[in-house]
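Deliverable D4.2, example record:
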Amino acid sequence: MNMVQPRIRLSVASMAITLACITTGIANAQAHPATPGGPAQVLVTARESLKPGDEAAHARLEAEYTAVLNANHGSEYYLGMGAISGSQQMVFLSGYSSLEEMADVHDYNETTLGDKLDRIDSAHSATLTGVDTAIWRLRPELSHPDSATLGRMRFMEMTRIHVKLGHNPEFVEIMKQIRDGWLKTDPDFHYLLYRQILGNSGDDCYLVLIAVPSLAALDKHHALIAKYQQALGEQTYQHILEFESANYNSTASNLYVFTPDMSRLPAAWIKDDLNFWAPAPPAAPTAKKAAAVQK
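Output generated by the structure prediction step:
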């Protein structure tokens, strides 16, 4: 199987995430303990565009996929999110410590579960109009991670920034200034920044991830923008705007909601909120006893 074919959870599996902090993935469930190890050095994203009318079939196949992994002790973990803004799509995130670990996960799952997962993948592909897969590498000096657990998060804001070729050194300096400005304004504001290393892009593409427990947290962040601009200073702020205008090919931000029925996270990360991540099935209705009729 090609390592970057559409079904990302077949080709590259295992994800571990903390608050806005995609953490080191687990390549082989038997050889590697599912323990977070800080922000993952490598992140894989898969954006699946759904065929109108096939949403229910897609959700059913996702549930089957997870059931196969659970029943066969698969090493694969991932976060699924549904788009609130932008086009109708699902996004899946998987994190790794290295490209080598990504390949190890693929080989392990393909060897142990390949036949079972291939059957589901074939039907799954028929529910999509397209898939865009990309591989990213963390830029830790441009990020501000947090240690809060993913299990407490509910939403993620994702921003893609396309920078004109040749302007990466300037972009890095700009992002350092932005990071310093937010640290002065709100030390509790956390995010990760990744640079694309493989995928469909003809320029320098970056991804900013902000995971939050509620939309109220984003309200707070947006309400502090004016204060953040003051922290930067007028000259620095104007320099940033001029750089973006001259050297960004495009930028887009969209909001996603976590979908527990399309995610598979380690038990240690969801144990404190099982009602959200793994709710018990509704109890079957109790049959009413027929009353005896006396004649």
